[in-house]
């Protein structure tokens, strides 16, 4: 009887997780940025969150949540409106946009971010190997110095390599 109860409990816990994984999988892939310095423009649909040691996060246009409960959260930053965009600036800034359509321009140092869904990244580093790393859909990390534009999720891949390099 005890084993049957444990089996039922495990199945009750795993079914919602499997359903969420299936839904996330059908929406695309993932993007991970680690310890970046420079200017990153990320446009996509899905969830995005991260941390900036020092810099700005500009929400270009409107963040369009998938539903009314997907409200963004930003801490450690001052808010201002510039040219119709919302701009957050500060040190030790943490942000979460939990599902929807977004275009974020993140500029600064110590940028770590993760996105799940579909979209593209445009990156401009300072031109050195210390510009940070990008991982697309669980692949091999690449230096941001090598990236101009990369897509994640459906039909992901490097669209343009920077600094005159080729694949």
Pick out its properties:
disordered N terminus; disordered C terminus; 167 residues
Explain this structure to me?
The protein is α+β, with helices and mostly antiparallel strands. It has one domain. About 15% of the residues lie in helices and about 60% in strands. It is built from one helix and eight strands, in the order αββββββββ. Strands 1, 2, 3, 4, 5, 6, 7 and 8 form an eight-stranded antiparallel β-sheet that branches. The protein is globular and about 35 Å long. The relative contact order is 0.25. The N terminus and C terminus are likely disordered.
Helix coverage percent of residues?
Answer: 10-25%
Q: Distance between termini?
A: 59 Å
- Structural class given helices, strands, pairing? alpha+beta
Beta-strand percent range: over 45%
Integer tally of domains:
1
Please, how many helices? 1
Question: Could you write a compact summary of the structure shown?
Answer:
The protein is an alpha+beta fold. It contains 1 helix and 8 strands.
Topology, element by element:
Layout: H1 2-27, E1 29-59, E2 64-65, E3 73-82, E4 85-125, E5 133-136, E6 142-143, E7 147-152, E8 157-161
Antiparallel strand pairs: 1-4, 1-5, 2-4, 3-4, 4-7, 5-6, 7-8
